[in-house]
């Protein structure tokens, strides 16, 4: 039987003669109060203020809070909260303080209650995506300043509630603003565990399980790319921009290993190549590595945003004639705006011909490798020297989770190792290959692997595949819905390759203008106004931007597994509603 959704938990408790729908929050709360241990279900209901009365008209109205020193359970209980108040307690009363066990458990349970209530609210379509305030208003309405004296734990809990009150609900089914959306419950649990373990990824001795999980997962990802037996190397880094910079660093070292000791003065002027629609991190990486942004040559794209291979080869030849040394080509699998996939096979042929490192920035589109239906869009990726892949985007792994995969084993170690003897002693009693920290640029490295690994265990590859396929199905639904709808114009013709759907909406006041220059001028202002109104009302969020000579247009992306066809319909109706007077 198909799942009935989040609120279906209460269905089994709704009798045949019940007038209450099992899908209502109240029914869910009644079931939750019975199913969850420790009174957590009742606490969620109390925090959400779901009871005999209907939900307040204002979905973000402040919920009544339990008095200090009392619990928020709806029935008699044995909660320790009845004996512990936070108004006179400080962080020094928590562990490792003597006799701090009970106070710590009670305080953390209170924090968990706040988080659970926020999670439930985030998936409720009747709540706002954002409670928007301008920066000066937000600064003035709350005390965000730091003080010399400590605040009570009661104040700390108030700060937690205030922070979430004004946070963007990125898990909300109608949040479409960024490439990273949604909130996976198993991933969240893994993130909590990771923070509790609070360790560093540099050596096996301090992170034995996490290091092994990174080894296993990176190998699996390399197998999916198509590298024989998953051979090669890789590392999880703080985002796709850093993964791309790692790739450029390795490409330079591979061609000129002396640069590690002697610096850029020891090598000729280099040239890197990427498409006009590639991510800005390619130029930023060149700047950080001392190569310079002028040495990044942008290749023309076709009308769909794909790199034109003939222009790539032309610019490589041209650079060589000028005395530059081409060392790095970054192809994009899923551009940020258009969602375009560069022709990897043709690019690989060119890179092989001129002996240039081929990198594939698959931060956005790399996850399509998990889908048998869509992985063809990355045909040729197995010929790359390196690949960036961000599971925190299409796979909905909680931020941050970005991997750089490298085909040549040992290259990262040679490029980055510094032999710090206080960390990487050579006479340890275990296999030193599991001390991965010396191949990273960082010393302190966050544990990003456990979220992905645990979600993979929970979903299986087929679960990720279904999730990705669903998002692409939703984007195709949106495209089909608006391509011939009055008032909408597509930025480029044809079905999108990724979940990016780029379009203009022309309100009635702009739609029938005959002066083309005036029409473009006014159309440029439409998307920013609609977006601002979306945020003021808090109903939804979707991004916009110009591109080249094109005026501002909406870039709709879908990566949230919670989104449905109804949410797509809502977005269309909301855009039209908010622009009636434009």
UniProtKB/TrEMBL annotation:
Keyword Cytoplasm: yes
GO molecular function, one term: pyridoxal phosphate binding
Lipid bilayer topology: Peripheral membrane protein; Lipid-anchor
EC number: 4.1.1.15
Any single GO CC term annotated in Swiss-Prot or TrEMBL for this entry: cytosol
UniProt key word Cell membrane: yes
Cofactor(s) listed in the protein's UniProt record: pyridoxal 5'-phosphate
Record keywords, A-Z: Cell membrane, Cell projection, Cytoplasm, Cytoplasmic vesicle, Decarboxylase, Golgi apparatus, Lipoprotein, Lyase, Membrane, Neurotransmitter biosynthesis, Palmitate, Phosphoprotein, Pyridoxal phosphate, Synapse
Main location: cytoplasm
CDD domains associated with the record: DOPA_deC_like
Positions of modified residues (N6-(pyridoxal phosphate)lysine): 393
InterPro entries per UniProt: PyrdxlP-dep_de-COase, PyrdxlP-dep_Trfase, PyrdxlP-dep_Trfase_major, Pyridoxal-P_BS
Gene Ontology BP annotations: gamma-aminobutyrate shunt; gamma-aminobutyric acid biosynthetic process
PANTHER family: GLUTAMATE DECARBOXYLASE 2, GLUTAMATE DECARBOXYLASE-RELATED
Described purpose of this protein according to its UniProt entry: Catalyzes the production of GABA.
Subunit structure: Homodimer.
Family: Belongs to the group II decarboxylase family.
Protein name, entry field: Glutamate decarboxylase 2
Organism of provenance: Albula goreensis
Taxonomic lineage from the root: Eukaryota, Metazoa, Chordata, Craniata, Vertebrata
């Amino acid at each position: 039987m198909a799942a009935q959704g989040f609120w279906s938990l209460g269905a089994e408790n709704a009798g045949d003669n019940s007038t209450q729908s099992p899908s209502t929050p109240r029914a869910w709360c009644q079931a939750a109060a019975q199913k969850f241990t420790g009174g957590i279900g009742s606490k969620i209901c109390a925090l959400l203020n779901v009871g005999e009365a209907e939900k307040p008209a204002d979905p973000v109205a402040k919920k009544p809070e339990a008095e200090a020193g009392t619990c928020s359970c709806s029935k008699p209980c044995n909660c320790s909260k009845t004996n512990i108040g936070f108004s006179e307690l400080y962080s020094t009363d928590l562990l490792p303080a003597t006799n701090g066990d009970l106070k710590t458990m009670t305080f953390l349970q209170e924090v968990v209650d706040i988080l659970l209530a926020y999670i439930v609210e985030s998936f409720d379509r009747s709540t706002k995506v954002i409670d928007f305030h301008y920066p000066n208003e937000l600064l003035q309405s709350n005390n965000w300043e730091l003080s010399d004296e400590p605040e009570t734990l009661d104040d700390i809990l108030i700060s937690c509630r205030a922070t979430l009150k004004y946070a963007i609900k990125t898990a909300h089914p109608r949040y479409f603003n960024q490439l990273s959306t949604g909130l996976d419950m198993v991933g969240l649990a893994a993130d909590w565990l990771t923070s509790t373990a609070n360790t560093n990824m540099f050596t096996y001795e301090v992170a034995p399980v996490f290091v092994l999980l990174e080894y296993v997962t990176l190998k699996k990802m390399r197998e999916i790319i198509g590298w024989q037996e998953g051979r090669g190397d890789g590392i999880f880094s703080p985002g796709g921009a850093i993964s791309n910079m790692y790739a450029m660093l390795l490409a330079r070292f591979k061609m000129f290993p002396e640069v590690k000791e002697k610096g850029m003065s020891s090598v000729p002027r280099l040239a890197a190549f990427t498409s006009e629609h590639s991510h800005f991190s390619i130029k930023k990486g060149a700047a950080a590595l001392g190569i310079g942004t002028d040495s990044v040559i942008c290749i023309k794209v076709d009308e769909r945003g794909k790199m034109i291979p003939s222009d790539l080869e032309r610019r490589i030849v041209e650079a060589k004639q000028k005395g530059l040394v081409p060392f790095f080509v970054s192809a994009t699998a899923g551009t940020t705006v258009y969602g375009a996939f560069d022709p990897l096979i043709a690019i690989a042929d060119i890179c092989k011909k001129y002996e240039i490192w081929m990198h594939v920035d698959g931060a956005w589109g790399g996850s399509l490798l998990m889908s048998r239906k869509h992985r063809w869009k990355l045909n040729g990726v197995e010929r790359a020297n390196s690949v960036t892949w961000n599971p925190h985007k299409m796979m909905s792994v909680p931020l941050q989770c970005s991997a750089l995969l490298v085909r040549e084993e040992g290259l990262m170690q040679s490029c980055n190792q510094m032999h710090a003897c206080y960390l990487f002693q050579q006479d340890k009693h275990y296999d030193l290959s599991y001390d991965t920290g010396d191949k990273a640029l960082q010393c302190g490295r966050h544990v990003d692997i456990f979220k992905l690994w645990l979600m993979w265990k929970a979903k299986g590859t087929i679960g990720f595949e279904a999730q990705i396929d669903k998002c692409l199905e939703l984007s195709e639904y949106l495209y089909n819905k608006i391509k011939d709808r009055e008032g909408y114009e597509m930025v480029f013709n044809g079905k999108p390759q990724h979940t990016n759907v780029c379009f203009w909406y022309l309100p009635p006041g702009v739609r029938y203008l005959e002066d083309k220059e005036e029409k473009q001028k006014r159309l440029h202002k439409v998307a920013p106004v609609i977006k601002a109104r979306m945020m003021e009302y808090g109903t939804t969020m979707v991004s916009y931007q110009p591109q080249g000579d094109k005026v501002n247009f909406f870039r709709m992306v879908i990566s949230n597994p919670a989104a449905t066809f109804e949410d797509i319909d809502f977005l269309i109706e909301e855009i039209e509603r908010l622009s009636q007077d434009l």
